[in-house]
Design goal:
It is a single chain. By secondary structure, the protein is an alpha/beta fold. It has 2 domains: 160 residues, HAD superfamily/HAD-like (Rossmann fold, 3-Layer(aba) Sandwich), CATH 3.40.50; 65 residues, no CATH class. 39% of the residues lie in helices and 14% in strands. Strand 3, helix 6 and strand 4 form a beta-alpha-beta unit. Helix 1 crosses helix 2. It is globular and about 60 Å long. The chain starts with a strand and ends in an 8-residue tail after the last helix.
Amino acid sequence: MVLNWKDIDTVLLDMDGTLLDRHFDDHFWLEHVPRRYADKHGIALKDAKAMLISRFRSQENTLNWTDLDYWTEQLGLDIPLLKEEVDHLIAVHPFVVEFLLYLRQQRKAIYLVTNAHSKTLTLKMRKTRIGSYFDGIISAHDLGLPKEDAAFWPALASRISYDPERTLLGEDSETNLSTAAQYGIKYLIYVSRFSSALTPKPSANFSSIHYFSQLIPKEGSTGVDLAKIKMLPPDFI
């Protein structure tokens, strides 16, 4: 498929792993929270990790997965405060700002569409200062449905006006891309370099990029051949 920007009116972008480096989130939930939990209860770190990872996975694909208030109550830890302890790890992926500027120049409607909790959004928008690039920011918690639920996308259409046939979605979750495909969103982009700490692996099912610069056409062109971009090496710039 050739992505011709003249055929796209709306761009929906995920946050964690897509625009922002997921290394922060992975470190926070898999290292920092277990360490603080182990310290509080006087148990071994490896035991805390095993127990918490199991509890986290039990809520995967639900709103509880990203609900900071839920985990504060469940774990007896001030999760928003703990996030601030390691907020120096919050980072925007390379070329994200350039891509957002390109979209603004092309007069596209740009929406941040995320499963993140409102308290996470507040912290990350304050740290990254990218909020002003968007026409709107919608959290799954506002709609009462996670993006993993196929009902999310029609519910989103009740909040913002978008034509699925003329919409691009950028995501680091193949599950979320799949539910969007069920709704009919035409242009689906998988971000394989979701964490700076992990080696990118292209999707077998969706057009894959390492950086959003790969979606910006070369001068004099209006489109990008999606069939070619996933063959670029992990260190492509």
